[in-house]
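User: Show me a protein chain along with its predicted structure.
Assistant: Here is one chain, sequence first, then structure tokens.
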Amino acid sequence: AYHQSKEEIIQNLNKAKDRGIKNILALRGDLPVDGSWKPFDSALGYSGDLVRLIREEFSDYFGICVAGYPRGHPDCTNYEDDLRHLKGKIDAGAEFIITQLFFSAEVFLDFVRDCRKIGIICPILPGVFPIQGYNSLRQLVKLSKLNIPDEILSAIEPIKDNDEAIRNYGVHQCVTMCKALLDSGEVPGLHIYTLNREVACTEILTQLGLWADGGAVQRTLPWKQTANHQRRACEDVRPIFWASRPNSYVHRTQDWAEFPNGRWGNSSSPAFRDASHYLFYLQTNLKSKDWLQMLTPELRSEQDVFDIFVSYITGRANRLGHKVKRLPWNDEDLAPETDMLSDHLAKINGNGLLTINSQPSINGKSSTDSIVGWGKPGGYVYQKAYLEFFISSKRIEKLKSVLAEHPWVNYHIVNQSGTETFTNTGHMPIAVTWGVFPGCEIIQPTVVDPVSFDIWKDEAFELWIERWGHYYDAGSESRKVIQTIHDTYYLVNLVDNDYVKGNVLFDLLLKVVE
């Protein structure tokens, strides 16, 4: 609530609703370190005010969580007053509580008992913090104004310069505390403050028996579904183009009155949101310096771009020694099935065919397969080989010549402006993924749709500039390299319809780059 007007908060909550977010953690927010503070909006000075606003404006659409403080909020006059304020937040419409971190199970259990005494009956989740470093612990405690128990200080002081020893101690302390919490019967779950460091958290969950080692969650569909979005609950078909940018697809289709179910219809009827509405999704959470480390601060030629694509596909470091964990077209980690193609992908990327989407051919794999499986157990899944890539205009004629020798391969080729398009698919969508399951019709959740591809190509080309080129100075050689690719390359998708014989696409493309 801090430093936002009522209008801004409502606007941001509407954005959250549009993007399928259902649960909100309502906080006042951290105050200025100099101690000066005045509410930006007199009606929204505290998190309880925010809870009331959410309920007034959105009724019961959002699930609302609020913070609880087992030792009392540091800014509150006393512990009893803080409990009364917490009760006020629940009465205003909050549905559950996550606590500030603590270091003793008894501290949390006392807090729960005190909450129950004054009529707070909602679930209360303990906020658990694994100690992973001496300096990070001191900084966090300073910010949260917490006291560290003497026994913990005595234990970590002799090992404060040994990060591994502190991490091992932190795991042991956290596991011991969590076991006591879980055994109490008062805890519906755990909220672990990871601070983006997953190793200790994974170890804690493993020792607690809450981590299924190697057990991948069965996917309902082969693409990432939208969480908590009731309007899209029946959606089971999407174009493959946004496979690695699901948030963008959800945003660009959010105005649709209904979503494809059972089959992909005429996509020229429901309008995709245009560029002015989806530029938000061209942005990224990565910092500029992280992008530049991966994409390199200087590009000397197009070959440098080719090499970055190869580094991403293979997991090898770039020429400056940095791992390329993302490319502008991929918000998600590489799919496990990409490993089935990685050698072929690396070869064609190194030769200037810059792939941004792919899938191998699959002929009747079990629906529970750990790599390509999806849907109900007891079924079988199928895929046609698919490739999507950028290619230099100098190679277009050679590509068309080679494609003419493979009539069972569907293709769609388009330049940045859309003034040149070559295709042999017509306007009908092609199913490239399907599954056969007991007791139901065949499911076709992924298609290659020519109309949608023309929409997607604008986004795909724009990402060259918005997520790569703009990191370089205007007029620099690096900027010119990216601009040249944006202006002169074509975007291509290929579908090998013979999923039984296997994937002919790489052999075809090697002829193009000979």
